[in-house]
Amino acid sequence: MKFLPLIWKNVMRNELRSLFTCMSIAVSLFLVTLLYAYMAMQAEIAENNKGQNRLMVMHQSGLTALLPLQHVDRVRAVEGVKVATAWNWFGGKYKDDRIPFAQFATDPKLVFQILDDLVVPPDQLAAFERDRTGCVVGTKIAAEKGWKLGDKIVLKGDIYPVDLELTVRGIYDGKTESADRKMLFFNWLYLDELLRNRREVFAGMTGTVFLKTESTDDIPEVMRKIDSQFASSDAPTRTMTEQAFRQMFTEMLGNVRAFIRNTALAVVFSLICVAANGMAMALRERTREVAVLRSIGFGRILVMSLVLGEAVAIAVVGGVIGSLGGKLLFMLFDITLTAIPGMAGGFYIPWSTALGGLALAVAIGLASGVVPAWQAARVSVVDGLRKVV
Predict the structure, then answer these.
(1) How far apart are CA 383 and CA 379, in angstroms?
(2) CA spacing 20 to 30 A to 72: which of 28, 197, 266, 323?
(3) What is the pLDDT of residues 172-210, one digit of tens each?
(4) Is residue 101 located within the same domain as residue 225?
(5) Which domain holds residue 78?
(6) Parallel, antiparallel, or unpaired: how do β-strands 118-119 and 205-206 relate?
């Protein structure tokens, strides 16, 4: 500990170079932390969904094909199914929004029995059930759009050739930090009524059936029964867990996890090279000083430790700014990243990921300082004092 002032003095010897090195580490680790926070969030959501016993039933041909509404009633009748409802993605535009947020047509009386990790005040839920043109929105989307109870919302149809005029009857919250608070739910009957008035082919159809089983043990058998029941119908089904359904959207983007890992490795390697170059330049300028330290009794191990300490100090400062600063940023400001509408309603950095980024900064400091430290330790007193930089 008594050498810490000396290490810090060496760090501040060339303030501009140390600043640029710290900032390059900070920015890069901030990006790496964001990428791994996304992976951590997906893992947490998957873990939370394991005990929810929720399944999605879609057309065997994919999401572009619709299911007859009769499928919902037949799914409800399957042994092991606790509750099931129609589940339609609307995808309407709100004002000047370019990307639609998550909007689902469903059954107001059943949806929160399935999504029991979301909480709606009882009086607001009752008002939603009574008003056919009512809707319930998440706390985050309500704050983002400035909505409050009683506000009117107009969604211009894009997929469906109808516009919705909705009234906010409820605002839901989540029981967990990873809960999606950026969705809007409205009555499926209202959408179907508008489509029937226009005599659209979409009338009486649903995109998927959302259901909850009695227990986790029932899931495999319920999936088998549903798909076998509709195997010979005009609309055969493909039933999957909610986790698999979410994963399907992620896989549309490719192998995201491999991409994140490879990107992180490339960034870390680049950081090591940048930091090592800075340390090599710093040690080259101080060759005579190292020789003086050796001449007054500083051993090779101590010299290596001082150089490694300097490299780690620079990297840790960058890690604190990049990783812990990123954690603080997302704690103070509600910044949401919605790469897939309806799949990620909010973004946060878990403490484990932030501390992992700080540990990575220490590793980068050690790796970048090994070669310069070894070279400094090998400098002979005579050659070092004789060298002119």
Answers:
(1) 7
(2) 197
(3) 998 877 778 889 999 999 999 999 998 888 888 999 999
(4) yes
(5) 61-235
(6) unpaired
